[in-house]
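#lab-general

N.A. 3:47 PM
ok so I finally got the sequence cleaned up, no stray characters, all 183 residues accounted for. can someone with queue access submit it? mine expired

B.Y. 3:52 PM
send it over

N.A. 3:53 PM
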Amino acid sequence: MAQRFHDKYRIPSIRLQNWDYGWNGNYFITICTAHHGPYFGKISDKMIELSEIGLFAQQFWIEIPNHFLFIELDAFVVMPTHIHGILVINKKEDKEFNLDSAIYMPGHNRFRNPGKNNISSIIGSYKSIVTKNAHKISKQFEWQNGFYDHIIKSDREFDRIRKYINNNPGNWGKDKYFNDVFL
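B.Y. 4:20 PM
back already:
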């Protein structure tokens, strides 16, 4: 059952409670538009044809390392209703952290501001700049609240996720949010 906070129900965090999302690591990110609206374009011949808003989504993702110098980009795709990408946090001064041996418990402070230079602040900045520019074209544009992340734990998993991202446009017809109306 969901907990109550300020007399409202809160959905428990899906984030790993023993992981600091500012630590060095590889993160698979998915961000969806609100109500899975096809704001970013359409799939034609297994390729994405980006709309103007889709071009913003692509452009500002590519610019993330210009604003967060410790970020490296890997596979990325803009789909009609969402984006998938791999962000690599590589802070030179940080030690490598191992998910299995992490003893730090950042999850105890989930209601505090998580600060800067972590996955949440990066995605928040990205969503904000895309929204600001998308509203010049469509005032209806919105992101779904939150985003999905997955900490990539092995090279094998990294390769599997990279392949999934790169093949995503070709698999659009199998997507759970695919709808012929979108085409």
